[in-house]
Amino acid sequence: MNRLALLGFLVASTCKPPPPQPGQLPSATDDCHAIEASNLEAVVECFYRAQDARAQYRLFSTAAKAELPESEWVASMNPATQAVSDVRVTQRETIQGSAYAAVSRVRRHVLVDGGLSCSDTSTRTWIREGNGWRMHGGFDRIAEVAAKKFDSGDYSGAAEASEEWLRVDPFSVDAYDKLGFAVLRGARGKAAADIVRAALAIDASNSKALLLAVSLSTDPDVAESYLKRFRPDDCVLPTAVANVAASFVVDAGRPKEALALIDRYATTDRDGRFALIRIRALNVLRRQKEAAALLTKAAAQDIRRHLDTQDPSYAAEQAAAVASTLLEAERPTAAREWVDYGLMKDPSNANLARLLRLARN
Asked: Angle, to 10 degrees, between the axis of helix 297-308 and the axis of helix 312-328?
């Protein structure tokens, strides 16, 4: 996990105008030390508009500084690929004697490879230290433990690490996100509905919180209702749509509604995951040859690129679904390629072992 994704952006500046008047939005060149440190809204607005990386770093909490050296923070800034807007405080709470706040901000990202852009709404924790507010969080060492355990299939370990993460950063939607998906994969712990409620309570517009609500919902109609809460250009909207469509196919046995849904959001697909859902839906409809025809060389590459970013057990399950469709379409050679890909991801997958025997016959 990249600790440099901790917060927003900045660009270099040398001028420092007078501090803003009360109620005035801080400009991009304001010195944040001229802002009253106890005024949370003013401090966070100035933080995200500051053009001096070292001035920003002085507003890190003690724990955040321990996680991220100043030199790495300064070197990480890239205003050409992301910009911050719509900063607001969404939550305040005193926990075990410490005053915390959740601060939401919208970031626009430029996807350099394709020249495309998208946005995300994320939330960071701030903490009151002494007489002033400081940016708190990051905690990448715990986050990396949770991510590695999840990626290795140790979902119970990932849940435990996420719980530890929340003890030091109680407003971390990222921690709730990892905890929720670990529970979805079978880890014991908090009920999925409680995890979703907690994440949305921090910030109901947070991209990951909304994705979590979509993914953990047991009712695809409820899950679909959350799609309306995303910004139209949200970076994770394609993932949310794919998860709802998959739920229509796998959980509800309603493949036609899955196809209709991804048709409505077709322009948001960037990495082939919609093609994967189409293939699975058409397979359920017994239209295997039509599904196989979608699997062009380019589409197969896109799907594998997408699966390469997922945890191995999920990638193996999806590869098995594609292989099964290809076998039904009487394309055993292509099916064998997907079986081999899936076994590379998860050699213990029993469904792939069965399909391997069928592909050889």
From this structure: 160
